[in-house]
Design brief:
Length: 107
């Protein structure tokens, strides 16, 4: 069965003008929903609307991240792929894209 993610797709980032959009330093410093601190990962929703929603709740959502972080950390450390598509915590109909900035195919 083919995945809807076979081939090219678009992901969105909304960042402050004074920060690099594709560096992964924020996730490296503080961690994120899907990765622990110490990993350079860019998080990008598959739609602009979800990117806006993610930014609105970014500092207000206090969900337990431990299981998600273990999964994301294993993906990052194994380097099996440069990109991982994960379900959105905020919308059951959309996904987020994680990009491993240190993966040999990205760096």
């Amino acid at each position: 069965m083919a995945s809807r993610f076979d081939g090219a797709f678009t992901a969105y980032r909304i960042v402050r003008a004074d920060l690099p959009a594709f560096e992964g330093a924020g996730a490296h410093r503080w961690g994120a929903r899907w990765t622990s601190p110490g990993r350079y990962v860019i998080h990008a929703p598959e739609s602009y609307a979800l990117a806006v929603l993610e930014n609105l709740v970014h500092f207000n959502l206090a969900a337990p991240y431990s299981a998600r972080r273990k999964y994301g950390d294993r993906w990052y450390d194994a380097e099996r792929s440069a990109v991982l598509v994960v379900p959105s915590v905020l919308s059951p109909y959309e996904c987020n894209v994680l990009i491993n900035q240190r993966h040999r195919k990205v760096a």
